[in-house]
Amino acid sequence: MSGSLTPTALARLLGQWHHGNAPAYRELADVVRLLVLDGRIPLGTALPSERTLSATLAVSRTTVTAAYSSLREQGFLSSGQGTRGRTCLPRTAYAGEKGRDSGAGLSGAPGLAVPDGVIDLAYASLPASGEAVHQAFAAALTELPALLPGFGYDALGVPGLREAIAGHYSDAGVPTTAGQILVTSGAQHALNIVLRALVGKQDKVLVEQPTYPNALDAIRATGCRVVPVPLPPASERGWDLDATESALMQHRPRMAYTVPDFHNPTGRLMPDAQRRRLVRAAAVSGTVVVVDETLRELNLDGGTTAPLASFSPAVVSIGSLSKSHWAGMRTGWIRASESLIQRFAAVRTTMDLGGPVVEQLAAAHLVRSLADPLPARLSALRENRAALLELLKVHLPRWEAERPDGGLAVWCRLPYPGSTALTVIAPELGIRLAAGPRFGVGGVFENFLRIPFTLPPDQLETAVLALRAAQDRLEAAPQLRRTLRDSPVAAIA
Ligand SMILES: Cc1ncc(COP(=O)(O)O)c(C=O)c1O
């Protein structure tokens, strides 16, 4: 149970809530509900009594009573007998004014605590690739007995997996030994290890603007200073290497984090000439380039580029099976010089002592035949991408969608700065979104939204129609853009 809100504190949070576009009780309930969804009124908070709130807001008591009953009916306010109602979330998906979802609560999909019927566009991730993952685990179990006599700890990773990953880099034109590989629990874990080993509070870290939100959060968590370098507009494609070079020379950052292979969220692919310039400029400024290749296998248009590490032995590469196979593998890696890998391993043992063995044995099978499930995955993604771009053109013609070269999402420019407000309204319309500002530094990208095309076309159509409905609501009540400025804290991938 949390605290309580005084009428004055609630009035302050409500701001200009009454605009006369709907009955006063509806407007009041709407803004309270959005404040709860937004996290600005914590769950379990007791709202003021009807009498005191009506006096403070200078509205009739009937208005507050009706607003509170509407919130109760929608599942956002508990119905304590004789006590003040406390804020809560609906136990089933809230389906707007038209009626409550009678669905059976949370979906059974592991890792996705999303109410049934809600389409999750905050995650750009796919289900496991066909039978490959299952078969890899079956094979891993037959290999397990040979490892059971050992301790089961290995901060660097199971040797067979390290060899398989090294082989993958060598095949891609970057000669690599198993000693240059550290196995991690995914790319996010890998980035945290690299950050902890390389970056201190006084350092600067260069990032692309926009970039992958969880990486940004991890970089910020080091306490370092973040140096964002904007990507050029969609019409120019690529990266702005002039801006990158001058930021490197001016700030001399300790580290630069880049996603050149199907950049998240734009889906762009960095041309080889720009890769060359990037590593050259970083060598001059004394910056360690950390390349996140999590999305590298999701090459939708067949563009050919060399892995960034092929341009300089100083590059630190991060990879993962999360997008090529399944995020549930929780398996990723770092490729770097052998001496850096030893440093990373020492840092890793401050966080954990190694990855689970069966997962690593299974991952080794997947890495050895990395390309096998990709054709089917890529062809479905191409179809989804085409469907999403067409749906956006038809239903949201004023949104400018950038056609991605690869990856899993489309980065859209909105005709107004309402990304956060759309994100807050969205669950009510059956979708979950990641607000544009999550992808940038300094609250920018309020007029951008990332939309994954990981769902089949029929579900994408439902999602785009819901986006259209959310947009219509926002246009009917533009004040929501002002009241709903803070990005909800929610999981994104
Ligand atoms: C660019 C990028 N890096 C890292 C990750 C996280 O990867 P993992 O699941 O391996 O931690 C993602 C997931 O969406 C991503 O898009």
TrEMBL record:
<dbReference type="InterPro" id="IPR036390">
    <property type="entry name" value="WH_DNA-bd_sf"/>
</dbReference>
<keyword id="KW-0804">Transcription</keyword>
<dbReference type="InterPro" id="IPR015424">
    <property type="entry name" value="PyrdxlP-dep_Trfase"/>
</dbReference>
<protein>
    <submittedName>
        <fullName>Putative GntR family transcriptional regulator</fullName>
    </submittedName>
</protein>
<dbReference type="InterPro" id="IPR051446">
    <property type="entry name" value="HTH_trans_reg/aminotransferase"/>
</dbReference>
<dbReference type="InterPro" id="IPR015421">
    <property type="entry name" value="PyrdxlP-dep_Trfase_major"/>
</dbReference>
<dbReference type="GO" id="GO:0003700">
    <property type="term" value="F:DNA-binding transcription factor activity"/>
</dbReference>
<keyword id="KW-0238">DNA-binding</keyword>
<dbReference type="GO" id="GO:0003677">
    <property type="term" value="F:DNA binding"/>
</dbReference>
<feature type="domain" description="HTH gntR-type">
    <location>
        <begin position="22"/>
        <end position="91"/>
    </location>
</feature>
<comment type="similarity">
    <text>In the C-terminal section; belongs to the class-I pyridoxal-phosphate-dependent aminotransferase family.</text>
</comment>
<dbReference type="GO" id="GO:0030170">
    <property type="term" value="F:pyridoxal phosphate binding"/>
</dbReference>
<keyword id="KW-0805">Transcription regulation</keyword>
<dbReference type="InterPro" id="IPR036388">
    <property type="entry name" value="WH-like_DNA-bd_sf"/>
</dbReference>
<keyword id="KW-0663">Pyridoxal phosphate</keyword>
<dbReference type="InterPro" id="IPR000524">
    <property type="entry name" value="Tscrpt_reg_HTH_GntR"/>
</dbReference>
<dbReference type="InterPro" id="IPR004839">
    <property type="entry name" value="Aminotransferase_I/II_large"/>
</dbReference>
<dbReference type="Pfam" id="PF00155">
    <property type="entry name" value="Aminotran_1_2"/>
</dbReference>
<dbReference type="Pfam" id="PF00392">
    <property type="entry name" value="GntR"/>
</dbReference>
